[in-house]
Amino acid sequence: MSLLLALLAAAATPAPAQDFRARLPEDEVIYFVLPDRFENGDRSNDRGGLSGDRLTTGYDPTHKGFYHGGDLKGLTARLDYIQALGATAIWVGPIFKNKAVQGGPGRETAGYHGYWITDFTRVDPHLGTAEDFRALVAAAHARGMKVYMDIIANHTADVIQNRECVGKTECVYRSRADYPYQRRGKTMINRGFAGDGVQTAENFAKLTDPTYAYTPFVPAAERTVKVPAWLNDVTLYHNRGDTTYRNESSTMGDFVGLDDLMTENPRVLAGMIDIFGGWIDRYGIDGFRIDTAKHVNPEFWAAFVPAMQARAVARGIPNFHIFGEVSEHDIRPAALAQHTIVDKLPSVLDFAFKEAVVATVAGTRGTDIFEALFDGDVLYAKGYDTARILPTFTGNHDDGRFATSVRWAFPQASDAEILDRVKLSNAMLLTLRGVPTIYSGDEQGFVGDGGDQDAREDMFASRVATYNDNRLIGTSATTATANFGRDNPLFRDLATLAKLRTRTPALTRGRQMLRARQETPGLLAISRFDPVTGAEVLLAFNTSTAPLSRAVEVDVTSAKFETLAGARCAARATAPGSVTVTLPPLGYAVCAAERAR
């Protein structure tokens, strides 16, 4: 039996469920889903148990900024679809109880996305119940699939108001220099408080007056809305106004009004450890994606992460994967890497990888970008060992879909070229180092109108006009009908590549070596090596619209090659240490070497 046939035969049989805990983070293929936009399994919870119009219930399936009805039961019912795609882990968008609606008059939207939490201990009633989540985790685990929770420690829903900002669309950030903790106007307050750098309970016990920058208050109707109850104490928040996303305000300002927790305070740290440790204890989940991680002080993560890892080990979860969102739109990885050293985060979402693929496959930059990207792997806390567990992606629910970037960059391109470019990006995602993360809908050719709400289309039949007028890739279907078929060429390619990856140790755990790159669109060649046998898998990508044929250096023991995916590989090396790579426009090849004896 050929290597390819052996891999496909093995992929046809699901891994035994009892083995899933032993897999390392880099062994996974992650599928990211916002439950509200995936599948509606229970229409009785569409309004979250609330009565009234959309401004009360948050439910309006015709508006892109409100709840649409997807839930945990729907997600559980579609696990077979996700597994058929080749995903081995599911990253579930936040499921905690949210403030249903917030925003000023005419600017109201709903918490369908899960990032406006009021109760950190409960499942949002729009999404289901605690038992629904327990059933999802159990069903995924029975299939040998992991479940990662999306968590938030930076902020809560917008409940606290500042009197000086009521009626205004912006609440300007007030710094510690201009508005120190120990003074309100000319009046001295919080005497003896040594500043937020002294992170002891004794010091923060002296921070009793929160009016140093603004005069925060909670409307009467919401004074006890947050759970656990300690979250209702306004002194546990920064209360300095809206962040500018830069400098001091990056960790102390409110995200468009969302109440920014004073994570320097040991009470907040202990509370968050208790909250999220409880989710591990109760449900046995397999990892956390941490929202807005870079907007929290490093000392918090340095204590929080080990506590979560210890809770996981105690629960029998040895490979608990924690990765932070550090949104940096820069191909240079240094800004990401610092958070694995300073913040001591085990891993971060690889925004630099996404930027590199967009710049080359949805752009015209040379493939030498990848040399700079991968050379930066040494900057991470544990070098390549950390880089290997960075979740990689090409688009997401905030920045928009990769296919959208392609359409914007090449408005005159044919449908065939657009499809080829998206296929090429998927080949990079599923074969290069990191943990490939597929955003739900990408496998169905979704093309949004931009980022944020415009990239959060429904997988079930949508009633949103601005979604349903989108021209999808690889299909004549629209989002007006359910999109859970398995015939889209993108679904088929992703499924093939995902299963190939998870059955090929060189593609999950293997070291990586750059073989060829150029300053213009064209060839990128990279070798990956089996961590046990040392056998080489050559990856070749053509980012240009012209065919190419080039000699590429390989290991001198790599004598024969077998095609695992993409264009046909040369059967033999042309000489010890050299093989000819021939690729069509925007093509790729995955070539497994047989070592000379």
TrEMBL record:
Protein name in UniProt: Alpha-amylase family glycosyl hydrolase
Keyword Signal on entry: yes
Domain (Glycosyl hydrolase family 13 catalytic): residue spans on this chain: 32-501
Entry-linked SMART domains: Aamy (SM00642)
Keywords: Hydrolase, Signal
Lineage: Bacteria, Pseudomonadati, Pseudomonadota, Alphaproteobacteria, Sphingomonadales
InterPro entries with a match to the protein in the record: GH, GH13_cat_dom
Signal peptide, first to last residue: 1-17
SUPFAM superfamilies hit by this protein: (Trans)glycosidases
Species the sequence originates in: Sphingomonas donggukensis
GO MF entry, a single one: hydrolase activity
PANTHER family (alphabetical): ALPHA-AMYLASE FAMILY MEMBER (PTHR10357), PERIPLASMIC ALPHA-AMYLASE (PTHR10357:SF209)
